[in-house]
Amino acid sequence: MTTSIHLPPHRLGEAARRLRDDVRSFLDGELAAGTFVPRCDAWMSVADPAFSRRLGARGWIGMTLPSAYGGHDRSPLERFVVTEELLAAGAPVAAHWIADRQMAPSILRHGSPAQRERYLPAIARGECSFAIGMSEPDAGSDLASVRTRARQVDGGWEITGTKVWTTGAHFAHAIVVLARTDGSPADRHAGLSQFIVDLPAPGVEIRPIRTIDGEHHVNEVIFEAAVVAEDSLLGERGAGWRQVTAELAHERSGPERYMSTVPLLRAWAEHVRQQGDASAERELGGLTARAWTLRQMSLSVAAALAEGRPPEIAAALVKDLGSRFEADVVETVRRLAGIEPRKNGPGLDGLLAEAILHSPAFTLRGGSNEILRSVVARGLGVR
Amino acid sequence: MTTSIHLPPHRLGEAARRLRDDVRSFLDGELAAGTFVPRCDAWMSVADPAFSRRLGARGWIGMTLPSAYGGHDRSPLERFVVTEELLAAGAPVAAHWIADRQMAPSILRHGSPAQRERYLPAIARGECSFAIGMSEPDAGSDLASVRTRARQVDGGWEITGTKVWTTGAHFAHAIVVLARTDGSPADRHAGLSQFIVDLPAPGVEIRPIRTIDGEHHVNEVIFEAAVVAEDSLLGERGAGWRQVTAELAHERSGPERYMSTVPLLRAWAEHVRQQGDASAERELGGLTARAWTLRQMSLSVAAALAEGRPPEIAAALVKDLGSRFEADVVETVRRLAGIEPRKNGPGLDGLLAEAILHSPAFTLRGGSNEILRSVVARGLGVR
Amino acid sequence: MNDDPRAEIRATVTAIVDRRGEDRTGRAWKELSEGGFHLIGVPEEAGGSGGGLGELSVVVDVAAFHAVPVPVAETAFLAGWLLARAGLSVPAGMTVASLDEAIGHRQDGVLRLSGRLRVPWARHAGHVVTMVRCAEENLVAVIPGDAGVDLVTAENLAGEPRDLLVLDGVAAAASAAAPPGLDAAALLRRGALARSVQLAAAARAVLVSARRHVTEREQFGRPLARFQAVQQHLAALAAQVTAMQVSAQAAVAAVEHGDADAAVAVAAAKATTSAGARQVAAIGHQLHGALGYSSEHHLGAVTTRLWAWREEFGNESHWHDHLAAALHDRAWWPLLTGDAG
Amino acid sequence: MNDDPRAEIRATVTAIVDRRGEDRTGRAWKELSEGGFHLIGVPEEAGGSGGGLGELSVVVDVAAFHAVPVPVAETAFLAGWLLARAGLSVPAGMTVASLDEAIGHRQDGVLRLSGRLRVPWARHAGHVVTMVRCAEENLVAVIPGDAGVDLVTAENLAGEPRDLLVLDGVAAAASAAAPPGLDAAALLRRGALARSVQLAAAARAVLVSARRHVTEREQFGRPLARFQAVQQHLAALAAQVTAMQVSAQAAVAAVEHGDADAAVAVAAAKATTSAGARQVAAIGHQLHGALGYSSEHHLGAVTTRLWAWREEFGNESHWHDHLAAALHDRAWWPLLTGDAG
């Protein structure tokens, strides 16, 4: 770790190609049936439980879970193929995305046998949505600044505190909460633990937070002395921060970290093909080269995961570049397409409006670029 | 100073237009006579003493100095017009640039009557080149890290220390040196003083530093117990840092802070006009809009100077934007012109090669962009 | 903008628009129009409130800075200007301008108008002014708002009305010949100047808000303003905002003084302010964190305007092409300095 | 590049090129050619040293990382490849390739060549290989270096030889028909792949040097690496360098395996590495301060190469246009994944 980030390229094989063809056929069928229209950022904001169940039925959720827990014993690289096809299509996958990406690996690794039995098969069927209660009011990027407390009481834990910017809590079947079980806020990383809380639950109030696009994707989740069972503790008491950090690497490592605006880019590519504007063509070529490279990097990260190498630094680096790419796609299209963005517009104007309004989130979610760059700098040994 | 940087636009009048016409006629004549070819960054690197003397004879050096000292009692705005015309033409002005820009105002303000008599008329005639000994080895951007010492001795001062990156010392008639007269390095800003040392001088060695373009523009200047007269102290003993800071605002405030690559841009504009490439045309339009705005900002800074308002913050801000513009000109031309840069090439290729090789200097000289941004942040009251 | 009448206008308009509470927009519009601020810069003989472009720019600047959705740019900058240029009088009530030309034909001495016209704020307007192409004539005409035209509502990214009027032989309430030089390009340029002022003002609002946020908020146990990366972002933001302000103000001054190269100034200003909007909004959101992404925070009201306005009346690509075309006939440096060369 | 033979090649070549002292270049070239590294990746039956594209890339990578001016890309990547593809043998000594096609005509059974050919390193070469257009035939031919041709010397920004050969009916020393698919576009692509590897390696050298500099140097009384702005710059640099490395390595792998979409990979890699060069050089110089701007510092040797190589064999604009043209026939996402769609 002294010269550069080691990230050898990976080549997908013939099996991946067949799997990709299967996913494309499925998506073509869904598009033909009109079950969805391609949307930007759909993995964050477009939830369709029926669509998720259909994916689950095909074995495309919980792919890397053991079959004993309803999974499919497939490699992170096979999961990568399915994931990138869904993202490229702008498919409505938000109902299962967080559960599949973060919570399934976390519960598999840290969960009790009972928790595994309870949640993993349901996640793999596409029937269990998860939310993650992490950020707190006034904490900004400082995720360790946790004021929510969990106090051991008779027969369980009593949780009190407020989480904000919680994606999908309004339709989630469960929420994972990071809370302080021991010590004081000055201890920062020490003394934090994770809990799984089924929703809805008494003492847990979910209020919508509308974002600048006027939509309701995120929530404020208020725990007022909500009592949960003893066995809702996830993993080890006091090890919450370590568990969360491992989840974050998963959160940052997927192709969604550069692909949120690919549906807009694909629509614009068609537009350019019809227009024949040399200036637009060249910039389309430029975005294509960047996307090609980001895909190769993302694939390398998936290969590292598959080999059990922790991709924390590489994932942070890819997300840093990827979120800039997502924003540059929006900027390039708006600058060259010669159309005014329009909310709910029928074509490129609607996709563009949605992408512009979501663009601040590209670099805020999953760690700001400053935070990501600190992770990379630390990885280079300079801190 | 709480909301934004106050920088009202300024409009030049009819007198300025006539002055501009005069300068253009002169430059057209020089170009026709073949006395120079337009060069990028010529104000740093192309010195022609005869050219400077011809400018001096026309009253275009030391313009704002009082006539009592050989100056012309003109306003900073008239000086601005002459300056920008010389820069736009890529004229060989390095022989008098530093003397005219920084040392003349500094000597007028801080110099003794004898120093004024000695240097100002010569500067205004274009016959006196100055160098500024500021940076020291290993100091980087930390200009206050001064190890050069001046010790009071019989009949004068004895200076010992080394200055680096000293532009034009090899042809300068005098160098201004920042040296510690009192206290220790831990005192930083306190205890520093400025001295004017005529060149060549015993005990002062000037060694070339070749830069990555293979050229010799800057020097290492070594003072080995060089003894200078009592009255070579410039201004107040111990007030050197304050004097230098005021000079820096002058150094940063001129149009050369965005215009170094304008000769390349003008040549490329002709190239584009002949090519008719739509993609290049659009980017030329973009650079033109940025240049127009930077010129308006630069003009506002000159107007602030003319009204006696210190333009420190605004100058830092314009230089930050300006140096990025200079580099973006180079990048745009290279990306779109479809030619390979070539050192000493006869046309655009030669201008491009020179500009590329100088580009690191755009953001290093006169304060790195990080330093400039710190100045701006402090101006906004956040530090 | 430091002379006295302008400072007074700034103070008065600020007091009107800088308020919270119920029906903020309606109350602001009522007071602005009662005070005649919606027709400032339009000559009194044309039914306006008098004053120059400088005063008008102050009103538009303040309204944009506070992100209050009132159509001062549309009434005074565009509609009033069109009417005054054509020698027509401004009708009472809210009069806004069409971005597109109508097709006219005369029938029994009545001018009848057809076409699909983009008309911001049409839904609220008492009258709409439009340029008209009628046989070989160029006209300016007034359409009454209650003339039974079809209106399709739409909004820009900031939720401001961007409506479509569908005319099919509607009778004009008034009309006059357009003077030489008043054409679609002139209208576009006029709108571009208005949006330049608005973009610069919205950018300034982002800077003010960001500065306040980073000095008031803490993270990792110290004020955000103490982080070097935050300071660097803030300084870059200030630089961009200042560039936008200077370019818009210089363009206003050039048009106000009738400079020969005013068209270049407007093109450069709209290009600069449109291109700068991205970085200003991005840094603003980055510095505010998730908080600024909530619809309850003021930031979104200004950033969505930055995103909407940069496309209106030509985005930077449009004006870059325009400047490049101007360079076909003029050398680069004289174009920049506004001289013949 | 972790398997053993490649690691061994890396170590050996590093030992050869990573030296200081007199006539560094001459000694490095002598040892490289004695070891056969100047013809690695060229089949032994064609007079090369054998090995695959992966091994060749290691040699080119190491030479570029150390900025040692030896023409391994020109001899092995281009000249050896051209000769082997045409079934010709590599002559002894240094053989380099022309970037341009010569015009051939046959006279008394002798192939005579004319034209102005750009030939990097021609001044040092024993032979030059060129593609030839002769009536309806496409040929590959060898020109002896001592054939009395006119040579105009020139250098790129890094001072590497970029000469011009002026041929006027020079007799070819050997020639053969070019196989199908071996044309000017294929040669350009091959050169682009070589430069991609070199650009990525030079970028890595900037990162290594910058990392060392900021950990060793102090400013304002503390190590540069402690400044948040410095850390952020370094991380951005690392991201850019990693992107360049991954793209170059992926393109090498695609060509090595004969992938159907190898042409897309090379276009994307040369575009990525050429476009990344600017930021890498800029951050590198910014972090090194004035010190790195001196010709005595190692940094300039790599940044001038970044600036030169990004333009050679098509800069990013060229390859962006190329990718855009490929999108005329294929949909965007299948092009990216290398599938038929």
Automatic annotation (TrEMBL), chains A, B:
UniProt domain Acyl-CoA dehydrogenase/oxidase C-terminal: residue ranges: 238-380
Keyword annotations from UniProtKB, A to Z: FAD, Flavoprotein, Oxidoreductase
A Pfam family annotated for this UniProt entry: Acyl-CoA_dh_N
Chain segments annotated as transmembrane: none
InterPro entries per the UniProt record, alphabetical: Acyl-CoA_DH_CS, Acyl-CoA_Oxase/DH_mid-dom, Acyl-CoA_Oxase/DH_mid-dom_sf, AcylCo_DH-like_C, AcylCo_DH/oxidase_C, AcylCoA_DH/ox_N, AcylCoA_DH/ox_N_sf, AcylCoA_DH/oxidase_NM_dom_sf
Domain of life of the organism encoding this protein: Bacteria
Record domain Acyl-CoA oxidase/dehydrogenase middle: where: 131-223
Obligatory cofactor(s): FAD
Domain named Acyl-CoA dehydrogenase/oxidase N-terminal: residues: 14-127
Keyword Magnesium assigned: no
Protein family per UniProt: Belongs to the acyl-CoA dehydrogenase family.
UniProt name for this protein: Acyl-CoA dehydrogenase
Organism from which the protein derives: Nonomuraea composti
UniProt lineage: Bacteria, Bacillati, Actinomycetota, Actinomycetes, Streptosporangiales
UniProtKB/TrEMBL annotation, chains C, D:
Cofactor section: FAD
Keywords: FAD, Flavoprotein, Oxidoreductase
Acyl-CoA dehydrogenase/oxidase C-terminal domain sequence ranges: 188-302
Domain of life: Bacteria
Keyword Iron: no
InterPro entries: AcylCo_DH-like_C, AcylCo_DH/oxidase_C, AcylCoA_DH/ox_N_sf, AcylCoA_DH/oxidase_NM_dom_sf
Family: Belongs to the acyl-CoA dehydrogenase family.
Protein name from the UniProt record: Acyl-CoA dehydrogenase
Taxonomic source organism: Nonomuraea composti
Organism placement in taxonomy: Bacteria, Bacillati, Actinomycetota, Actinomycetes, Streptosporangiales
